Amino acid sequence: MEGRIKNEVPAVAIESRPMDLWLLAALLGLLVVGSVEVFSSSAVYALKKHGDSLFFLKRQLAWLVLGMGALVIGSSGNYGWLRRWTYPLLAISLCMLVGVLFFGATLNGARRWFMIGPLSFQPVELAKLSLITYLAYSLSKKADKVKTFSVGFVPHLLVCAIMMGLLLKQPDLGSSIILAATTLTMLFVAGTKISYLALAVLAAAPLAYSMIIGTPWRLQRFMAYFNPEAYKQGVAYQVVQAQIGIGSGGTTGSGLGLGRQQLGYMPEGHSDFIMSSIGEEMGFVGISLVLFLFAILIWRGIRAALGARDSFGSYLAFGITLAFAYQALINTGVVLGILPAKGLTLPFVSYGGTSLMVSMYLAGLLLNIGQCRPAKRRERELVNSVGGTRRKKRAVLVVE
Amino acid sequence: MPRNTSKPPARKRSLRRTTKYQPGVVISKWTRIRFYVVGCAITLCFMGIGYRAYGIQIKGKDHYRDLAERQYLRTIEVPAPRGNIYDRNGVELAVNADVDSVFANPRAIVDLGATSEQLAKVLDLDIRPLESRLASPRYFAWIKRHITPAQAEAVRALDIKGISLTKEPRRYYPGKKLAGHILGFAGIDGKGLDGLELAMDEVLTGEQARVASLRDATGKLMVDDPNAVPHAGASITLTIDRTIQFAAERAVREAVAVNKAKSAVAVVQDVRNGDILAIASFPDVDPNAPGTAAGKGARNRAITDSYEVGSVMKIFSIAAALEAGVISPGTVIDTEKGRYRMGRKLYRDSFHDEELTIGGIIKRSSNVGALKIAQMLGAPRLHKAYQTFGFGALTGIELPGEVSGVLHPSKRWGDLGLNSHSFGYGMTSTPLQVTAAMAAIGNNGTYFEPRIIKEVVDGDGHSLYTRKPKGRRVLSKKTSSQLLPMLESVFEHGKVHGTARGLFVPGHRVGGKTGTAHKIDPTTHKYGDDLYLSSFSGIAPIQNPRIAVTVLVDEPHGEEHYGGKVAGPAWTRIVTETLAVLAIPSDASLLAAQLEAKRKLERRFAWRTGIDPDKIERERLRNQVPLQRFDDTPEQVDSPAMQDLAVEDHTIDASDPGMTFVPDFTSMGLAKALLTARRAGITIELKGSGSAIDQSVAPGPTRNPGVVQVRFTTSERAFAKR
Lengths: 400, 722
Hints:
The complex is a heterodimer.
Chain A: H1 21-50, H2 55-75, H3 80-84, H4 86-103, E1 105-107, E2 110-116, E3 119-121, H5 123-142, H6 149-152, H7 154-169, H8 173-190, H9 194-214, H10 216-226, H11 237-249, H12 274-306, H13 311-335, H14 354-371, E4 378-385, E5 391-399
Antiparallel strand pairs in A: 1-2, 2-3, 4-5
Helix pairs in contact in A: 1-2, 1-12, 2-14, 4-5, 4-7, 5-7, 5-8, 5-13, 7-8, 8-13, 9-10, 11-12, 12-13, 12-14, 13-14
Chain B: H1 9-18, H2 29-59, H3 61-72, E1 73-78, E2 85-86, E3 92-104, H4 112-123, H5 127-134, E4 141-147, H6 149-158, E5 163-172, H7 180-183, E6 185-186, E7 192-194, H8 195-199, H9 201-204, E8 209-214, E9 235-238, H10 242-259, E10 263-270, E11 276-282, H11 301-304, H12 314-324, E12 332-334, E13 339-342, E14 345-348, E15 355-357, H13 358-364, H14 367-377, H15 379-388, H16 417-422, H17 431-442, E16 446-448, E17 453-457, E18 463-466, E19 471-473, H18 477-489, E20 511-520, E21 527-540, E22 547-554, H19 563-581, H20 588-604, H21 606-609, H22 613-623, H23 640-645, E23 659-662, H24 670-680, E24 683-687, E25 691-695, E26 700-703, E27 707-713, H25 716-721
Parallel strand pairs in B: 2-9, 24-27
Antiparallel strand pairs in B: 1-8, 2-3, 3-4, 3-5, 6-7, 9-17, 10-11, 10-22, 12-15, 13-14, 16-19, 17-18, 20-21, 21-22, 23-26, 25-27
């Protein structure tokens, strides 16, 4: 085969690296702590409600098996397809965000879920992935133009704003804040001028104000944030109970299964407020461990971003890391009473469901990017017409 | 198509291991730096959260633990079993039994309307207040306490969410109305509210155990500490004899019915030590259902009410004169044919005797004689004597609500006060005071304060109090021995008969004094013509006194109003039955003489009464109905508990003295089980309520059965056995 044309190889040869075992260990650590605590904190509730104290543990283990599958899928193969699927993904997730407003199931006054049989799926999980993909794709493609206002700033913000608008319709303020924070941070690292970012935040401020003032329950939550005691039987009930639970844990906690808050005082002690259960049963040691594991996760994520094969992968890894970091920060901040209450789960630790699966897929992508495998080569034939119906193969182009 | 691979695989693998990590060739330097900046910022945030956790968990630990404990720890008070009350022979008069109570967790109620409707139907409650109770935002509300086993079963069958049953100790009085006045009652929370239960509440109430328990968010308590055992209250043994008490109550009830009276009282006292054997008061009260009693005027009138008892007091004024030596038994008093004017007042007797000995004055109840003797004695000495007999002062009996009666100082008696005091007017006394004073005469002049508590034993079996009676001399032995024949003469027949003619205690010689007092009409404040207080107080047997008995019948509206006719029959009946219980042998020849005398009297008045004693005697002999001996089987069977009382004796296996026969308690009620156990001479412990299903010692002859535990239940099994 002669006449082969080789396409350009990267300027520096990037060797693929072994799987990031630190990242994997931190991840497994969080999953173990989470599953143990899910069982410990839900046993009483599960027995009372479902007549089986293992009800949530069994499901958590099932989700873990599925999540492991998602992790393997995410970490193997090539993530290059995401780049090509950027816009379809974006379109699909926007459609789902619109669709959920009409066909979604309502839980606790919010229309956030698609119910498919016994499974529930939150479109915001997909939206998160698609937005990060879009930003990674766009920022890596635009390179230096990122600094410009019209090309580098406005389109990203617009996509983010549309998603946030749809999320706020559900309403899901917590997720939209995570999307906004992720977007702004990614723009910041890509090199957008700080002044633009400040402008965006300033522009959002009056909007946020009117939303808080204009919605009674948000206003209440906001007020409760400043004075939880006054609302301890109402909107601040969970926050106050969470702090009682965490506080009574002390240094080493009451021991697994010995927490008292699970006697119905701490609703959702196995999902959104699992940090409270950990704080009570494992004490300061337990909380520190979880925070430390998250820190490892984040630094290994950044390391993956730094060592990515290409800038798309780099931004993608960073975006995923940011999403994890912000969700963990907001969740723990709420549980510890630093932030106003939001309905967010703690990634990997809270009771599973599809969100655990998506998170583990994203974690798989992180591992994948960190491994820095060379792109799968695809070959394209260049064919010349040599008169009539005869075709002559001239070259095979290898593209990445 | 061959791949463009620059290196062979083996080489690649070795490179992999050795290649150093080379960051960021694909992104710019500044972007890399910003990655690190963001990473550091996020790490700082995590550290901030860690610091916050430190603040809450290490520094604020105590504060939050306190808050947590306040919401999940509850101290439950486990009520101590209240002490039992026994009669002098150890028969249970007041015991505890576990009964069911229904409570709700209003927060857990799902369907308010349906729940209240079902409960109202089953528990027979008004639906409106029930609904509002269930609608309250609390975690606990009583629905109905102390329900019947059938109701409990029905509630259990309903199985409504948020409605639960719990066992509560309930005070239970197996004898129902028996000694109801004395016992009083304990409220729903086991607090003594009346009678002995009130007076001895502190002793009967045990020490409750305090148990720390977990409470979940719905208010449900979860863990009990099995080690916390409450300290049972002390049990009290009374001087009351259940059988005598029953006899007295029956006699009093019948006296009220026969004489259409307002109320009646009887007191039986052991003269030798002041032990009260019975106090009966009608209207009566069932302490199991005390709610209705107060309206009927049920109270322990023997101590709460004081009366102008009238002629009965003559015995004490004459005793005082005898003791002072102003008269002797042989002294003859001119009784002025029963009419004597002093100042503006005319004193009249029932009979028209010209003159009477001291014994005759008592026998004929002569007011004129009594006042003449009192004139000889003088007011201060009479007052002093009455005081010595205990009038005008509390006896100190261990029951609440005792009154002292009124005995004014002699200076305030006025011109004719001495006269009226000599036969029991112008002063008031309680039936208990009269009985105690009468007992002193029967006890060779030694007065014992009447007492009702024999012994108090605490929960561990240690005796806290044992009655040690101490007497005080109020009369010389000589005087009291002079008085006894006079009291006996009241029952004499013949031309100059006593006021209790026609009454007799079969086979026993007894003595007594009648009293027929006019009562002050509350509307006119004058002595009414048809308002009487008929009384009878006496001693039996007269040759060796054992008991003093007083019967008062208030406002009889029947054919008779004389003490001998109204209170007398009740008195003889009580004495007859008491002497039988005390196993004092009767004299057969005396009985024959008494019956003959009675027949003679009846024959004499047959033209008026229409009763031919000879005909009755002939019929009695023909039917050969033996004289019915009193037994403690109540004849008025009106409730399951009382039916349960009427059980046959279980005979003890006499062939082996060491063996005890344990009865089969199965399907017995509480009262029946208690009675059966007592008859079999074994001690039982009651567990639960309803009917018995199980016992710790199998039925049949057993050596030393000890305390037999009998389990009661309301389950279908028990019902099925019935």
